[in-house]
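debug: dumping io for the single-chain case to check the tokenizer round-trip. Nothing else runs in this session.
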Amino acid sequence: MSDLETAPLFDLHLVLGAVDAVGQTPYGTRVVGNLAGGSFAGERLRGRVLPSGGDWGLFLPDGTLVVDGRATYETDDGALIYVVYGGRWAIAPDMMQRLNDPERPVDPSEYVLRIHLGFETASADYAWLNRIVAIGRGAHVGDAIDYEVFEIR
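debug: decoded output
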């Protein structure tokens, strides 16, 4: 078996909307982060993130956020792509509280935010997405999360 390779797929900008705090459950602290929109751009596809998705996050006792998201992307030529993503955001609880504090910014090097993505589309032009797995590394930037997304080959 050969080594895995990655290739840049697109840069992703997810604009965060309201967060609904479900609260402490038997599994951890559940929050639902709504997506207000966003954009993606790469060599083979580009477009916008529709304001129809969200992230059903679960904070574990150690502060790690389990990422569980769904979104719909619309390419610049009108194709719709359903995206499912999951992963982990390992960040200390005090840093999570400081994320929106401009006087005490948190550098992305102080945490780890990684996701894996799967795609589903009916578009013949983007059918290749149905067969790939992608990974991303992210950073919290203002009211958004920016990801570099890579195809696994």
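debug: round-trip ok. Strands lie at 6-25, 28-41, 46-49, 54-59, 65-75, 80-90, 112-121, 134-141, 144-152.
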